[in-house]
Amino acid sequence: MVFKKKQKRLIFFLPNFILGGAGESIFKLCKFLVKYNFSILIISLGKNFYKKNFKKINCEIVEIASSRASYSIFKLRKLMIDESKKDYEKIIFISNLNYVNIISIISLINLNNIKVILTERSSISELKYSYNLIDKLKNNLIYFFAKILYKFSDLVVTNSKFEKNYLQDKFELNNVICIHPPSIKNIIKKNFNYNHRKKLNLIYVGRLSKEKGIFVILKALRNLNKKYKFLFNLYGDGPERKSIEKFIKKNNLNRIVSLKGFVQNKKLIFKNADLFINASLWEGLPNALVQSINHNVFPICSDAPGGNMEVIKNGMLGLYFKTNDEIDLQKKIKKFFNKKLKLNNKKRIKHLQNYTELKSNLKYLKTLNNF
To answer: Which residues does residue 95 pair with via DSSP β-bridges, in sequence order?
Structure first.
């Protein structure tokens, strides 16, 4: 008689499974892990935009109906109590994002047969930024509880070395490792020789939200079109779209700025691009920044907390400017225009080996098998 080996149960909890970012990274990881005797459950708050994709690879889906993440604690705990009674070799709960990590720790109190991994897909130092008093109080509270509760996890996984060092230093955590996200499937080794066209194609790729610093880019560009010929295309969607449209209209930027919306095919985005700009106030490990380098599109990024500086090798594979400083960004864009900067192909290829899908997945597999 052949006995079937018990499966390990993986439970991923992410509040917003929207297109791109964390949702895409988790799907890529799950697609890889299902081949290695893992049974996977995906939990989201509300709609999961990757639902059909997850079902195709035999992952179970639970969409918790809850208007706020904090309201989900009891529903999540009930789910986990039920899971803890099932016959698995091990149960590993993987939470994503700082405030969700706090909710997860609280929900799993005394469920000792469930191992808990917390992931920081952004930088927790983002909680130092606030847009108003209520926002500041909320962020301070999250930071306070995170500093206390993260110590009760079995492991903390960060996207960048910056964040790993930050948590080890500020939170005094020893159980922290860095696993880069699966930013690229394959390294494009061809040495593209982009000719600097008469009208250059500048791009932004990402969510249209406040923390992405899009208005910093627009302010830096609005005085440059008098001397330089270029187009600026924004790929992505989000809550700031209408505000961005108003700014473009008010500053007469319609002829040089276009909002393209979310585009799934990244090859189409980077194919004819000359310069990629990231102006985030904070970051995790930005996939789009890695992808720009992979497509040999020269990047300029902010020196924000998170993985930006790591991706561009502290200026060896791109330029950086002071976070939230439109004047400094304008200087760096001028430098790119005037010097016709290009990436070093050998350094580019070697560095990109850190961000491949296979390397990220294998490191997760090794980590999970060690539990």
So the answer is: 13, 118
DSSP structure string for 228-292 = S-EEEEEE---TTHHHHHHHHHHTT-TTTEEEEE--S-HHHHHTT-SEEEE--SS-S--HHHHHH
Q: What is the pTM of this model?
A: 0.89
The CA distances from residue 306 to 189, 238, 310, 317, in Å, are 27, 21, 8, 17
Quick one: which of 371, 368, 313 has its CA closest to 179? 368
- Residue indicated by tokens 């627009």: 218
Residue with tokens 């994709």: 53
Q: Is the pLDDT of residue 326 over 80?
A: yes
Q: Please give the pLDDT value at position 49.
A: 82
Q: What does the pLDDT look like over 271-325, one tens digit per residue?
A: 889 999 999 999 989 999 999 999 999 999 999 999 999 999 999 999 999 999 9
From residue 270, alpha-carbon distances to 205, 217, 276 in Å are 10, 18, 9
Domains in the chain, start-ordered, CATH in brackets? Answer: 8-182+356-369 (3.40.50.2000), 200-354 (3.40.50.2000)
Q: Write down the pLDDT at residue 121.
A: 85
